Amino acid sequence: MMTLVILFLLPCAAVSARTRMVPPGHEIVNSRNVEATESQTYSKALTVDGKECQFPFRYGGTVYHRCIQRHSSKPWCSTTHNFDRDYRWGYCVPETNKTSRLFLFPDPCAENPCQNGGLCSSVPRTHSFECSCPEGYTGRLCTEQKCYEEVHHRLYDLGESWGRIHHRNVEQCACANGIIECVRVRYTVCISNPCQNEGVCRLIVSTGEPVCACTPGFSGQHCSLTPDADCYENGAVGYRGTASVTRSGARCLPWSSDLLADELSVENVQDAALLGIGEHAFCRNPDEDTMPWCYTLTNTEISWDYCNIPKCRAALTMSRRVESQDGPLPPAPPPARPRRAPVCGRRHRKRVPRGRILGGHSALPGAHPWVAALYIGTSFCAGTLITSCWLLSAAHCFLGNPLISTVRVVLGAHFFNDTGPNAKSYGIEKYVFPDHFSIFNPTLHDIVLVKLKRQNGRCAKRGQFIQPICLPVRVTFPDYHCCQIMGWGYMYEKAGVYSQHLRVGTVHIFPFEQCSRPDVYGSEVTSNMLCAGSHRCIDACQGDSGGPLDCVKKDVHYLYGIISWGDGCGRNRKPGVYTKVANYIDWIYRIIKRKP
Predict the structure, then answer these.
(1) Which of 589, 570, 565 is closest to 3 using CA atoms?
(2) Which residues are catalytic?
């Protein structure tokens, strides 16, 4: 009855041209090759049933480059690049004794036979090796060059063929021995025109492939690129240049990468071509951000950053030109004072989940940066960060008046009982119950304030993975409004173990009259509580007490409720009961000594 966390149901003259490597700063990456060369710790491995591990692979939103033993008694790996999406895996073949193996069989990678920066990896159970080649090279030893097509601004592998319009000739090209070899071919008019920016389309008769002749200033397979663009205009949505490096110097992941399961990508965005994203790693702005950006692989996390592209100064240049021709311009009116943006309840838009599993889904790292994991002695609860030093949780989590030295708070966490690269662990200074809380009736006033202990003079440092949520000051949500609950709790009633990583589910607010019916909870529900649930068995369950009921208004997240109690997990006609945070606003601000 007491604790709840989330339950989830879970004849023509030939024309040839020699290939060249990609120009500096204009790297084109093959979507199948990037994952194999993204990390310098790449190693080949097999599963016990003979399948090849696919490194790196994504699991729980984190990227791994070797077999792992996380949440398993034996090392395992994913047999596709994305376990979160495909759920295909196997136990890894155990390594034999390295000393005896090296004595009998020298390490084939000892002198790295792979050329041009290729990475050598020994093949288990054999005495051979494989090379993982950098972009632009292929072959067993990475000695063969791929072909760089200047018209399309991309690399083609050996044996690949493609059509193009070059010097007004319609050609069929192929990559042979690192050289582009093209022949003129017959063509006809296109039934539909995929060419953008007023490009002209022709259809190759032999293959049925449409090819484009681009107007000046544009290039690419469908005339969607402006390779000479070295800046972005206001809004940046129309940027179609070929920059692929972020401000931090990281290389962009292809928008078609298998590692991007739930993020903005070719796979799950409508009109991807019109937004400029495709099988390339160029900086784009598909979500109307302030400037072009891209996804990156930072350490072991899928991250993102703005690109190293300046803003165009065309408007300023034009105004100076007009002033020089027509005399001085009248003084411009002072800019309007911008409204102060909320400093809470905002998450990076790149962390908004796209894909969903019926009944709930695994959260993306950083998608809910206000969720805290509370380890209280041998028990576990959740909480929600509301300022850099304070978080809210359920009072019943602290029923035994635990010593503050036994309480540990982890912010930015994704995996249960594992801090990970983006998490930060804190001790606490104190916890405060509301005035009318009683251990003899802990479902009443089930809310507690927890103050973090400062480290080097400060509490939580805000970032992409740690942010406070907003409190519902003068903000209400109507009945049946959809909100989200999240936590590491049991995935079904009496599961006995916590979820391996943070999970999220959508519930809607129940009318108070429905929740207080005699056949639901009757008089046990008070005006300081609210109910929320779902007809798809999404609910809170054991271990998520104290976690948030997160409701959104105009892209701002509010802590509308705290997971408190309920009858079982996901039972019919038994929604979860939450502490109504709005009723405790005055008490919260009195304790933390801040004004609403």
Answers:
(1) 565
(2) 396, 446, 545
